[in-house]
Amino acid sequence: MVKRRERAAQTADADKIEAFAALAESMPAQKLSLPKDAKRDYKAIRVPFNEFEFTQLESLCEKTQRSKLNMIRHALSFYAENGLGE
């Protein structure tokens, strides 16, 4: 005669899953804190501009006495600080 195998109490598995999920939901999410003045060797992008956009960038750079890259970085940090980045 063939001996049938049966799973032991499936509710125990469900209880373990629920306990794990509750633990995961109760843990606070940790934000990664990165230094602002870190070396700039992480990523690089190439951004193509049209003539109008490049003229605007140059105009802003002349008014604020910033380089083009610094102006782009400044705009990025400005929008991130004012809550528009999220």
How would you sum up this structure, described in words?
- The protein has three helices and no strands.
- The chain is an all-alpha fold.
- The protein is elongated, with a radius of gyration of 27 Å.
In short:
With about 90 residues, the protein is mainly α. About 50% of the residues lie in helices and about 0% in strands.
Secondary-structure map with pairings?
Blueprint (H helix, E strand, L loop, with lengths): L9 H17 L24 H14 L3 H14 L5
* Number of E-type strands: 0
Helix and strand element order: HHH
Mean pLDDT: 85
> Roughly how many Å apart are the termini?
65 Å
Low-confidence regions = none
Shape verdict:
elongated
Name the descriptors.
single chain, 86 residues, mainly alpha, 3 helices, elongated
